[in-house]
Amino acid sequence: xxxxxxxxxxxxxxxxxxxxxxxxxxxxxxxxxxxxxxxxxxxxxxxxxxxxxxxxxxxxxxxxxxxxxxxxxxxxxxxxxxxxxxxxxxxxxxxxxxxxxxxxxxxxxxxxxxxxxxxxxxxxxxxxxxxxxxxxxxxxxxxxxxxxxxxxxxxxxxxxxxxxxxxxxxxxxxxxxxxxxxxxxxxxxxxxxxxxxxxxxxxxxxxxxxxxxxxxxxxxxxxxxxxxxxxxxxxxxxxxxxxxxxxxxxxxxxxxxxxxxxxxxxxxxxxxxxxxxxxxxxxxxxxxxxxxxxxxxxxxxxxxxxxxxxxxxxxxxxxxxxxxxxxxxxxxxxxxxxxxxxxxxxxxxxxxxxxxxxxxxxxxxxxxxxxxxxxxxxxxxxxxxxxxxxxxxxxxxxxxxxxxxxxxxxxxxxxxxxxxxxxxxxxxxxxxxxxxxxxxxxxxxxxxxxxxxxxxxxxxxxxxxxxxxxxxxxx
Length: 475
Ligand SMILES: Nc1ncnc2c1ncn2[C@@H]1O[C@H](COP(=O)(O)OP(=O)(O)O)[C@@H](O)[C@H]1O
Ligand SMILES: C[C@@](O)(CCOP(=O)(O)O)CC(=O)O
Hints:
By secondary structure, the chain is α+β, with helices and mostly antiparallel strands. The protein has two domains: about 10-260 and about 415-470, Ribosomal Protein S5, domain 2 (2-Layer Sandwich); about 270-410, Alpha-Beta Plaits. The chain has helices spanning about 15-25, 95-100, 115-125, 135-155, 180-195, 210-230, 235-245, 280-295, 295-320, 330-345, 355-360, 390-405, 440-445, 450-455; strands at about 30-40, 55-70, 75-80, 85-90, 165-170, 245-250, 260, 270-275, 370-375, 380-385, 405-410, 420, 425, 435-440, 470. Strands 1, 2, 3, 4, 5, 6, 7, 12 and 15 form a nine-stranded mixed β-sheet that branches. Strands 9-10-8-11 form a four-stranded antiparallel β-sheet. A two-stranded antiparallel sheet has the order 13-14. A hairpin with a 6-residue loop joins strand 9 and strand 10 (about 380-385). Helix 8 packs across helix 9 (about 295-320). The chain is globular and about 65 Å long. The structure holds adenosine-5'-diphosphate and (3R)-3-hydroxy-3-methyl-5-(phosphonooxy)pentanoic acid. (3R)-3-hydroxy-3-methyl-5-(phosphonooxy)pentanoic acid binds near residues 234, 286 and 379.
């Protein structure tokens, strides 16, 4: 297996390549990585047990800025302001020996699909000082994120790793079913693989099979990051975060690679995301379903089968549908499938009163169809509104939802997957000859709110003016 030596300078766009070449050392240059959140249209939970799910990338994204410390400073810092985490480790005190032992070491190109409990134990002492004075709930969130970070760093890096600061900001609501953890794992996996020079491209001329290999590599390690956070995961979230667009996902055997089929003709469903503002934990919801499966295996399996049939039907709608045709033609069928899928998830015990209230307001009034998305227990619902309903009724619904404390917004489905901005320099929009604007850590941290980050570094197009580059994942 070859290492292709970091990102390709030819993909940088119209900049002064000669000057840049001297500066572009992946172990020294500040760079940004970004990955999207996702919605699961059909098949959550059943997908953990080998059934098929349909998921699509959304326009909300995480951004990871990697800045380098002076060579003399042998420290790695995690700066995750969205969750209030700021922690540093001395590089030489990390448990490299455990991870590099010949019986444990996995090369970056190997497909790894399980966590090693001894390696998790080796990390534990390095998590104990994190946010020691924070409430236990916040501490758990911090330790989860740090566990994912350290497991990936120690798996992919080495004791000679450079001193760096990893700053993550995200516009994806955390713990709400939109795949914030997967998006974070994809960003971390990409950053480490890039730093060890195990990625090639992205490049506008990169052959599709080569681009796919890079995304697979990123995705493989991102899945390991997801396992660190959830204990058990199907891999659908990180797959969509890595490759973007819409996909059909299945992992029939947990020891084998997942089967991922891109859905290039996925219709532009006019979905609305409704935020219950009720926090939930994916791990807790997965454990609820696991318990149900233990207590009532046949019934639970039958429910998974029914979900699988729904996904199958949705696939046939996509295949039969003409991508150019008006989606209104079979909107009712999509809505019906969503509503049935939701009710089965409720039978599995992963709905919540706040989610059922959305159904009361949307489905029971005949305005549209709703379904929880992601793990459930709170988080987000997706609603499809019947286009024949008068505008005033939709407006009424929106204000009702707001009055009752729900958040409500539209999103674009099928967005780009993982991307890099390397170096972290934005091309000025007005003058193609100028050198661009360096993004500093201070600036990245100082922009206000989740959407300030989008405004500062936001992605516009595949190779557009913003300088962001994406590995092509089109079918
Ligand atoms: N922006 C972020 N900054 C730091 N950690 C994050 C961020 N987004 C997600 N995480 C990590 O992911 C966990 C949330 O994962 P999960 O419960 O699966 O929610 P989601 O449904 O959004 O993926 C958090 O507890 C935290 O460890
Ligand atoms: C419940 C599940 O199917 C989806 C979880 O989605 P999220 O973590 O709520 O974004 C779990 C999984 O597929 O790993």
